Amino acid sequence: KELNDAISLRPKVNILGGYSRRFFHNYIEFKKYVEYNSSDSELLRINIQEGYPYQWNPVMLETIIQDELSHLVDTLFYVSNLHTQQNLINLKNVTGDIYKEIEINGEINNTKIEIKFTRTEDLINHIRLDYSNGESYILNLKLNGSFYKVQNKKVETFPVIQKQSSVSVFRDILSYINKASYKKNNFQNLQEFKNTINFIDNVQGMLI
Pairing state of beta strands 43-51 and 111-118? Predict the structure, then answer.
């Protein structure tokens, strides 16, 4: 409701999602590569997971839904090129809790989705996209992480071309805002984040 109320203010106000991962060069390179190489194939399955042990009590933090899960879900929509279209979200199972870990299974359109985030154990931080032609694309979710193409048990590795620091990422974000780049057609599309909000609302509704 808050998002819809804010959107109703347009064109007086430009509303941008705070999703800094859209500025990670490895995410952008992965997104471009997948879009170019999978145009004739159907996306069957998305698996995304991220986790690492926190050194303090997770209950003292913001909830997973308010923090990490929102970025993870936005990554799912963004790199699979679903963020700018209207999607049918069908969540079938949500387990865990809002502070320590959460697992989600369901579908977006006809694509099976599996999501896991935890603050209590190390996971292999990645997103994997499986296509009907037998090809899979895997992105290491860390800043400057490589991505991979898997087909017939053969793995092709693509290191990030232009590495970044956290400082340079936020410098890119500030430049994007100061130059009003969000008004142009670009890879960040920070005005397109309604799918992420709708997905998170669905998750929260199933946990209540």
Answer: parallel
Residue 118 phi/psi, 5-degree rounding, is: -140, 145
Strand (E) positions, the chain?
43-51, 89-96, 101-108, 111-118, 126-131, 136-140, 147-151, 154-158
Prior bond of 53 cis (ω within 30°): no
Residue with token string 């579908």: 107
Q: Assess contact for 44 and 111: CB atoms under 8 A.
A: yes
Residues 78 and 19: beta-carbon distance below 8 Å: yes
pLDDT at 8: 57
> Does the structure show a pLDDT above 70 at 112?
yes
The pLDDT mean for the chain works out to 89
Nearest to 87 by CA among 78, 99, 96: 78
Cα torsion angle, 39, 78, 166, 114, sign:
negative
Q: Residue 121: CB partners within 8 Å, gap ≥ 6? A: 51, 52, 53, 101
Global confidence as pTM: 0.89
Question: Residue 89 in contact with residue 106, Cβ under 8 Å?
Answer: yes
Q: How far is CA 45 from CA 55, 76, 167, in A?
A: 33, 11, 34
If you write DSSP's letter for every residue of 161-176 in order, what string do you get? Answer: SS---HHHHHHHHHHH
Beta bridge partners of 156: 149
